[in-house]
Each structure stands twice: as C-alpha cells, then as structure tokens.
Amino acid sequence: MFGDVAQEMIKMMGHSGAIPGAILAPNIPEALKQLKSELKQENIRRLNLVETQEENEHSEHSVSIIVRAYPLLNLLNSAIAGECDVMWDTL
C-alpha cells in the first residue's frame, strides 16, 4: 500500500495514523469492524458523487479506496484467525 492511502486506512481503523504503529491481536476485531463501517460510508459518498456528476468520456478512472482496502481486510481477517498482532512501518 502507498503512503497516503495506507495512512487513510490506518485512520479508518480508528488508529491515530502514526507510522510505525501496531494493533494488538485483541483489538483487531474492533479495528476491522470500524474499517468496514468507514468503507461502507465511503461507498455511499462515492455513489452519491457519481449520481450527481455527468460521466466524462475523457476522465481518468481511479481505483477506489474500497478496492485498495481488500488486501488489508484479508490481512485483518487472517490476523484474527491466527490471533496475531498487525504492525506497519515505512519502507
């Protein structure tokens, strides 16, 4: 994941956005729940935006944060199953 998108998703999980950072195993289910809730709200905002704007044939199609969050959702689910902490840092 890239910097600004990653930091946005970290904040969506209810974390401060500090890098490096971590979520301990017992707190991951709540972080996952909060991330899913934020993604749902983002999807609603995105759908409302599409409805109010005309489609421009020349506009660029960006990858939505919902699509970008898929690997993080899988990571959090795996961490829950394995009772593991999740940590992140910059490269």
Structure notes:
This protein has 91 residues and is mainly α. It has one domain. Helix content is 57%, strand content 7%. It has four helices and two strands; from the N terminus they run H-E-H-H-H-E. It has a two-stranded antiparallel sheet. The protein is globular, with a radius of gyration of 15 Å. The mean pLDDT is 87.
Q: What's the rounded overall pLDDT mean?
A: 87
Biggest sheet, in brief?
Answer: 2 strands, antiparallel
**CA radius of gyration:** 15 Å
Q: What share of residues is helical?
A: 55-70%
First CA to last CA: what distance?
Answer: 11 Å
Low-confidence parts: none
Tell me the number of strands. Answer: 2
Structural class of the helix and strand makeup? mainly alpha
Summarize this structure briefly.
This protein has 91 residues and is mostly helical. It contains 4 helices and 2 strands. The longest helix has 25 residues, at 28-52.
Task: List the defining traits of the structure above.
DUF1840, 91 residues, two-stranded antiparallel ribbon, globular, mainly alpha, 4 helices
Secondary structure elements and pairings:
Blueprint: H1 3-12, E1 21-23, H2 28-52, H3 65-68, H4 70-82, E2 86-88
Antiparallel strand pairs: 1-2
Helix pairs in contact: 2-4
Protein name: DUF1840 domain-containing protein
InterPro entries: DUF1840
Pfam families: DUF1840 (PF08895)
